[in-house]
Each structure stands twice: as C-alpha cells, then as structure tokens.
Amino acid sequence: MNIKVLFFSLIASFFCSANIVGQEVLTIEDAMKIALENNFEIKIAKNNTKISETNVTFGNSGMLPTATANVVDNNSIMNSSQTRQDGTTTKLDNAKNNSLTYGVSLGWTVFDGMKMFARHDQLKELQKLGDAELKRTILVKIGQVNSAYYDLVQQQQQLAALDTTIVISKQRLTLAQNRFSIGKASKLEVLNAQVDLNSDQVALLRQKESYANAKILLNQYLARDPKIDFKVTDEVTVDNKLVLVDLMELAKKQNPALEAQIINKRIAELQLKQVRADRYPVLRLTSGYNFSESQSSLGFTSETSNRGLNYGFNASMNIFDGFNQHRNEKVAKLQIENTKIAIEQQNLILDTQLSTAFQTYLTNLELIDLEEDNEAIAKQNLDITLDKFKIGTITTIDFRTAQLNYVNAKVRYSNAQYEAKLSEIALKELAGNINF
Predict the structure, then answer these.
(1) Which UniProt keyword terms apply here (predicted)?
(2) Is 3-38+114-280+321-430 in CATH node 1.20.1600.10?
(3) Per-domain residue ranges of the chain
(4) What is the pTM of this model?
(5) Which of 406, 396, 403, 426 is closest to 175 using CA atoms?
(6) Are 402 and 388 in contact (CB under 8 A)?
C-alpha cells in the first residue's frame, strides 16, 4: 500500500476509534442474555407458562372434595289468621316470623367415568404446550437479536469502507490541486475531485444514519433505552459446517411448532376420553352439619331449633340425551384426525423450509469466497491505479472507477457474510438449536 494512503487510513482509524471510546462493547452473548432477561414478549410467555403450571392441580381436575359454608336468614311481618278444626279462629296483625339456617356442607365426586383423571392429564399437556410456546418465543426473539446484531456488524464494516474511500478521495483532491497549481492539470480535474469527495461524504452520512437506526432497533429487541450507545464486534463468523440431514433430525425432536402440534394431538385424545366418560354414572357423596332456628308469633309452636349431621349420596347416569353423546364423540374423533393432519402438514412445511434455507445457506457460503476474492482484486487494482494516477498516466474517470469498484467490493463482501449469517440463524431456528 502507498505510504500516504496508509498514513491517512491510520489517521481515519484513530479518529474513528476515538469516537467510540467509552462505549459499551456488546458481544452477541451479552445481547442474548439481556434479551432473555428484558424482552417483553419473552416475559409474557414466561408468565403464561407459569399460569399453565399453576393450573395443574388435583382441585382443578375435580378430584378433591368441596366444602361450602352457608347462612340463610328469612324474616317476615304479616297479618295472619288461623282457623282450627274445632271452628275457633285466631288472628294477629303484624305477626313476626323468623327462620335462620346455617352450617357447612361437603360434596365429593368419587366417580365420573374417569373424566377427572383425563382432565388432570390434559392440564399437564397444556403445561407442556405453554413450554413449547415459550421456547418458540425465545427462539424467534433470539433470532431477531442475532439478525439485528450482525446487521450492525455489517453496517460498521461499511462505515469503515466509506471512511477509507473518503481518505483516498481527499488524497486525490490534494493531488489534483497540486497539479493544478503547477499547471499540469485543469481546473476541471480539481472540481471533479471535489464533487466526488462530496458524494462520498454524503454516502458516509447516510451510512451513519443507518448505523444509528440499527442500534436503536437492537436496543428495542433488548427492551432497553433506545439512546444507550455501544459498539459491536468487527467480524461476522459463519458456521460453515451445517449438514441438512442433521438439521432435519434435530427439527423433528426440537422444533417448537412441530412439538406444539404433537401436544395438541395428545390434548385432543384426552378430550375424547372426557367425552366418553359421560356414558358412565356419576357418584357423588354429600354430607353436612347444619343449625336451624325458627320463631313464629302465631301457631302452636313459637320457637324451634335443630342441629345435626346429614349425609348421603347421589348417583346419576345419562340414559338418552337426544344423541348428543354420540355427536360429541364423533366431533372429538374428528378433532383428533385434524391434529394428525396438522402434524403431517407441519412436517412437510418444516422439511420445505429447511431445504430452501439450506440451499440459500450453501449459495451464500460460495458468495463469501467469491466476494472475498473480488475485494482482494479490487484492492490490488486500486493500488495500481493510484500509482498511475500520481504520475498522470490515467484519467480521473479511470481512477474514480477503480475507487468505486473497491468500495463496492468491500460492501458486497460484507453483505455476503451477513446474508450467510442470516441463513445460518434461520436454519438453527428451524432446528430449535440456537445457542443462548
């Protein structure tokens, strides 16, 4: 590299480094950790999982007895008249009557055709479904964090490329001014160099804007203040050893969408068990201890009180309900059939997505190698062109073309790395295998 170009590049790097002194260095591991702790959707999914876990109780399944306390107080004021069999009549205006009953009752369903046990198993499966949804949410959000993070790395690399081209454009302007001052170049050459430098500075400002917006987006995924400043690592490391067959095997075991469909099938089967349980009798034990008091202003008895234990059982069985039992069972069986179809559909979707994403992944890996070679060639071409430009053997248009080719090659190489990383993230997300 030309000594002057190296000197100006070092100066640009120094100012760029000075600009980020004091900023937080955010690694991808730190970003994922912050997202797991702060992301709002992950927090909601965690709470939903806790709700599903809380619902798995014997009481919610209907296995435990219920106890109820009750108080009933009735009062009345009436004008009463009583005629006895011997013909005598008794009358009383504003007669007061009072009845008070209170106590505790106990009820326990001891048999319902095993419906309560099927219900308990269903609650457990619903908890597993909540776990699968939490896993899906985490995978999606961690995938977004990875994509946003490596987009920042790409934006940062493009900033460095534009910084380099501005250094070269400033050197070109200086050379043009020097040549004009000694009469070896026209004013037009100086103006062209100035216009190209201005264009590069505009492109740099646009890139800085994109970089700042990408930071804000990542902060949003991390659920923290959008104004928090930080820097990211300088390289994108792509895992180039993924194998499609291995990914498909992992997806069959770990993909949360497929896992959810399998759990839904189990839930539908347990629902059918509960529907079939309605064919059997229901046996319920009852008991209680009650107190009762009554007062009457008219009649043979003015005051009565009772207290004591009552117990018994009741049994019921559906004999005929207008064929609703048959209809309910048929609907439950169709729901099971739907879940089987959904599993087959999800398997096909998963295989299709993996195959498509893997083909894109392979293409992007090849593009990385090609663009890396293109960048090296463009850099070599720029060095040669710069030397020729200094001695005046090529035009400013040729020099500008070589300069833009170099910048575009660097940008394309950065984009190829980023696209390959996105493909890797998509494959691992489908396989349920993102490391976090």
Answers:
(1) Cell outer membrane, Membrane, Signal, Transmembrane, Transmembrane beta strand, Transport
(2) yes
(3) 3-38+114-280+321-430, 66-111+282-316
(4) 0.82
(5) 396
(6) no
